[in-house]
Amino acid sequence: MEYIFTFVFCFLVIYLLYLFIIVLRKKGLEKFKTSKQLDYFKIKFKLDIKKLNFKKFANALAVTNAFIIAFTVTVIEVFDNWILKVLVAFLILLPLMYLLYNIIGKYYKKKEGK
Description:
114 residues, mainly alpha, 5 helices
């Protein structure tokens, strides 16, 4: 039960921060348009951001990033050793980011074509 609380708490805090700092602010969205994270989607999936609803795309990334971080934090709470925590965090973060970003990229690439 403690791990579920940790996951939900981390997810909500990270998502709400991302929502209020990036998604809901015009200035935040403008800065997000020049971010490296968005460049990844432009290059890898050849997304044309002008054809997408940018606010929905930023919100989808906010949910995804919040999930990735919350899941990683929850899993590393199991371990006591700091070195092991860092190692496990990298082993979880990288594949999870790759997998979820690919799902988002393919989804928005299909949506762009419609």
